[in-house]
Amino acid sequence: MTSTFTRWYLATGLASALLLAPGSTHAQDLLNQLESTPTDSLRREYVTATFKGTRIVNGHSIETPGRGSMLFLISHRFGTLNSGAYEFFGLDQATIRLGLEYGLTDRLAVGVGRSSLEKTYDGFVKYKVLRQSSGPRPLPVSVTLLATSAVSTLKFQPQPERSTTSRFTYTYQALLARKFSSNLSVQLMPTLVHRNYVALRRDQNDVYALGAAARQKLTKRVALTAEYYYVLPGNTADDYRNSLALGFDIETGGHVFQLHFTNSQGMIEKFFIPQTTGNFFDGDIYFGFNISRAFQLSNRE
Amino acid sequence: MAQSKFLTRTGTISFFSATPIEDIEARSQMVGAAVDVQVGQVAFTVPMKSFQFPKSLMQEHFNENYVESEKYPRATFSGRLVNWTAAALPATGPQPVQVEGDLTIHGVTKHIRVPGTLEKQGNRLLVKSKFAVAPADYNIEIPALVRNQIAKSVDVTVNLACNPAP
């Protein structure tokens, strides 16, 4: 009797389970099946947007403009905050750099710029060698190489005029970055600045520095940035100061608007790495901004 | 029994946003989809980062700001064919169908009902659908500055060629 009942119970239970299985559960099964299959994890995925712009503050980030994208950069530094009310705390003075950079491919970019400081023209080539990725054979970091040259076109006084070669400075950087989370990115920049000409015998032609930078997102469109360049021991390190900068990145669509405070007046490597004079903690702080505007000159496909 | 389950991993989904200022089109060719014609069930999943945009900056904004791909890596749909019997699938030609189910984008799930077609072609099953999605429905915030560049309603086109699944 009992066994018949049990059998009947089991049978109806099974039947109702089969008949009443709600449709959505089945579809969910299909979905689960789709998502559990490993094709997704077999695909290499590159980390994007480690930094908002191609610059962190003064120096470069690992980012390059995408293929066919032209960036117009306006970089601006006012005078020092401690220059007092007469100078309107630095706002009466300004140095500026205008720049253009272009993505030849998604990984290779070239750029040119003109700084008002020492009437300097600069040009650079930047290449993303490695890109941080997840999936098969994941890479923990991105590496971008940067080579720049700068030429001062100042009319030097007193005579004799300096030769053309003596006006050139070169910078070589390896930019290593890791995006730890969608909010935090960190970058290291071993750097060599080679100056063809230095004024004094004790000055170094080759200045080595190690830079470090970080970005912490505060909201989806606002991030806090910090950048520091430690100049390796030598006469230059004794005579000048390390460059320190703190800033905000504000993204508004086609623009990245960066506001910052730094003890460096120049906005290219040859200035802010071996020639920073300001003492940040004495108020030799230059308030400034970078604005970059992207123009798409050709589509990626 | 006839083949009932069909699968693809390389389906296409594209979307198109048209405004007077700018047209934006993006496409993914990494759509995973499964259709069970016996019971009329449909499911698909697409990695958000697989959408390719003509402008790299658009792609960055899409992933970083709008759909937040790192937090919500996939869009999914699971649903069923409305009033479906397996016999309704003709040997040739597309069969218009209605699909009803849950669409999840940016972590938000909405119940939708959209039109589409199913077509047997050899041993493959072709699935097509066109429908509109409003970013606002999925809590996708567009900042005021670019609000006029992104359409209130985005046209989504689904194109799948599914192979018989074991």
Sheet with the most strands, sense and barrel status of chain B: 8 strands, antiparallel, barrel
**SSE string of chain B, helix = H, strand = E?**
EEEHEEEEE
What is the H/E string of chain A? Answer: HHEEEEEEEEEEEHEEHE
**Protein chains sharing the most extensive interface:** A-B, 37 and 43 residues
Helicity range of chain B: under 10%
Any idea what the radius of gyration of chain A is? 28 Å
Q: Write the CATH architecture name of chain A.
A: Beta Barrel
Distance between the termini of chain B: 13 Å
With strands numbered from the N-terminus, the spatial order across the biggest sheet of chain B is 1-2-3-4-5-6-7-8
CATH class of chain A: Mainly Beta
Largest sheet of chain A: 12 strands, antiparallel, barrel
> Spans of chain A with pLDDT under 50 lasting ≥5 residues?
12-24
Write the SSE topology:
The complex is a heterodimer of chains A (301) and B (166).
Chain A: H1 2-20, H2 23-36, E1 45-46, E2 69-80, E3 94-103, E4 108-115, E5 120-130, E6 133-134, E7 142-152, E8 168-179, E9 184-195, E10 206-217, E11 222-231, H3 235-239, E12 243-251, E13 255-262, H4 269-272, E14 286-296
Antiparallel strand pairs in A: 1-6, 2-3, 2-14, 3-4, 4-5, 5-7, 7-8, 8-9, 9-10, 10-11, 11-12, 12-13, 13-14
Chain B: E1 5-18, E2 23-36, E3 41-47, H1 56-66, E4 74-81, E5 95-105, E6 108-121, E7 124-133, E8 154-164
Antiparallel strand pairs in B: 1-2, 1-8, 2-3, 3-4, 4-5, 5-6, 6-7, 7-8
Pfam families (chain B): YceI
Organism (chain B): Hymenobacter tibetensis
InterPro entries (chain B): Lipid/polyisoprenoid-bd_YceI, TTHA0802/YceI-like_sf
Folded structure, characterized:
The complex is a heterodimer of chains A (301) and B (166). With 301 residues, chain A is mainly beta. Chain A has one domain: Porin, CATH 2.40.160.40. Chain A is built from four helices and 14 strands. In chain A, the strands form two sheets. A twelve-stranded antiparallel beta barrel of chain A has the order 2-3-4-5-7-8-9-10-11-12-13-14. In chain A, strand 10 and strand 11 form a beta hairpin. The longest helix of chain A is centred in the first third of the chain and has 19 residues. Chain A is globular. About 4% of the residues of chain A have low confidence. By secondary structure, chain B is mainly beta. In chain B, 7% of the residues lie in helices and 54% in strands. Chain B is built from one helix and eight strands, in the order E-E-E-H-E-E-E-E-E. Chain B has an eight-stranded antiparallel β-barrel. In chain B, a hairpin with a 2-residue loop joins strand 6 and strand 7. The radius of gyration of chain B is 17 Å and the shape is elongated. The mean pLDDT of chain B is 90. At the A-B interface, helix 2 of A face strand 2, strand 3, helix 1 and strand 4 of B. Chain A: InterPro entries: DUF5777. Chain A: Keywords: Signal. Chain A: This is DUF5777 family beta-barrel protein.
